[in-house]
Design brief:
two-stranded antiparallel sheet, globular, 410 residues, 20 helices, alpha/beta, five-stranded parallel β-sheet
Length: 410
């Protein structure tokens, strides 16, 4: 049996292949990027929205949009809502603006921040807060800073994945900035499930109702799933087997890819006689328990993956290595293994990302409680030592046992 591991997003073959049944969504983004990068004075600011249930390919589509925007010469600001960071004020904002603002020269920084550095700097994670942040003041300052940044680095594409997990402060700012962005060479691209908390529904409508282009992703058709099966398992895969994979996964690209990995790992022949085992394998792939990850990654690599899942959407390799007590060489090997198994992705140097939020959640939930508490405690200390401030460390402090430590309680 030929084995070619599938991706997590409905791709066939190697990474970078065409996404199945997502051509219209990609073309729509391409048209928006073309409008954004037109001749000076003709740029059009738009809001694109991709919606759909978990695993239908929103993250994969946004990855393609990021690549296309970069190829077109856009300054790309990217952020992602985090299931465990949805109550951390301005978490998504920090992901969006910190990398590009931190790279500005002193002259550019003065020009972009103007009088707002003391207000926006702490929210962006660039300076330590001198007191409690005023959300409205931060939003006003962010409008000023982003407007100046767009003027300095235009055109700008602002992409947010998993918007349904965005913190309320970031969501509120995005809702306001979406109106202002229409007057700027700025493109907003958002992806979300229909799972916003009740207290965020008004902000959600304030954003989604303004969408110029809206796309709801649907499950894959049987012929597309058959293509994925044969790309992963070989052209000899029988029609009945392909059809059963589609039935078991309901055409969900993520679940299809996860099931095909299990089929390949178990060396199950893709023939009709094997279809009776598919539901059990699908349940294993969907659960991704501690045993699943241990068998797949081994204990050393899994510990690095746990540390990365504790950091969630802002994974610095050096911090992850410290959290799981791995030296540089061991940590580098862990990263290579996690890339090879399509758990983590990202540039060779710089911040890492999980290939899909569902993978991050699965890895995090596989942690034994004691290991989770310990890693959160180390993360809180290391984030403060790295100069990222109490705001970033606070969510980790909430996950540890503060008895007897008045400083932590405060």
């Amino acid at each position: 049996m030929t084995e070619a591991k599938p991706g997590d997003d409905g791709r066939s073959g190697a990474e970078g292949g065409v996404l199945h049944e997502r051509e219209a969504e990609i073309r729509s983004a391409g048209r928006a990027i073309e409008a954004l990068t037109g001749p000076v004075g003709t740029e059009v600011g738009e809001l694109l929205l991709y919606t759909g249930a978990a695993g239908l390919g929103k993250t994969a589509v946004l990855t393609e949009v990021r690549r296309a925007a970069r190829r077109a010469g856009c300054t790309v600001l990217f952020g992602r809502g985090g299931q465990r960071q949805c109550h951390e004020p301005f978490h998504v904002v920090r992901q969006l603006v910190r990398p590009v603002l931190a790279a500005l020269s002193d002259e550019e920084r003065a020009r972009v921040f103007g009088p707002w550095e003391d207000v926006v700097g702490p929210a962006a994670g660039l300076t330590a807060p001198r007191g409690q942040l005023d959300p409205q003041g931060v939003r006003d300052g962010l409008d000023f800073v982003l407007t100046r940044l767009v003027q300095l680095r235009s055109p700008v594409a602002v992409l947010v994945d998993d918007l349904h997990w965005a913190d309320p402060e970031s969501l509120g700012w995005l809702a306001g900035f979406a109106v202002r962005a229409r007057e700027l060479p700025a493109l907003l691209v958002l992806a979300c499930r229909d799972e916003f908390p009740d207290d965020a529904l008004a902000l959600q409508r304030g954003l989604t109702d303004r969408a110029d282009r809206r796309h709801e992703l649907r499950p894959l058709r049987p012929d597309s799933v058959a293509h994925l099966v044969r790309a992963a398992l070989g052209a000899q895969a029988e029609d009945a087997f392909c059809r059963h994979v589609w039935a078991v996964t309901a055409g969900n690209p993520y679940e299809t890819a996860a099931l095909l990995r299990e089929v390949a790992d178990q060396r199950l022949d893709p023939v009709e006689e094997s279809t009776g085992q598919l539901r059990e394998l699908a349940a294993t792939a969907r659960g991704m328990t501690l045993r699943h990850w241990l068998d797949r990654l081994g204990p050393t690599t899994l510990r690095f993956a746990w540390a990365a899942s504790v950091l969630d959407t802002d994974i610095r390799p050096d911090l992850a290595a410290t959290i799981c007590a791995q030296g540089p060489e061991t940590a580098a090997q862990s990263v290579r293994e996690l890339r090879r198994h399509r758990v983590l992705t990202g540039p060779q140097s710089g911040r890492l990302e999980f290939v899909h939020p569902l993978v991050a959640t699965s890895v995090y939930q596989s942690m034994p409680p004691a290991a989770r508490t310990g890693m959160h405690g180390v993360a809180a200390v290391e984030l403060e030592n790295a100069g990222l401030g109490l705001l970033a460390a606070s969510r980790h402090l909430l996950e540890i046992l503060p008895e007897g430590d008045g400083e932590i309680v405060d």
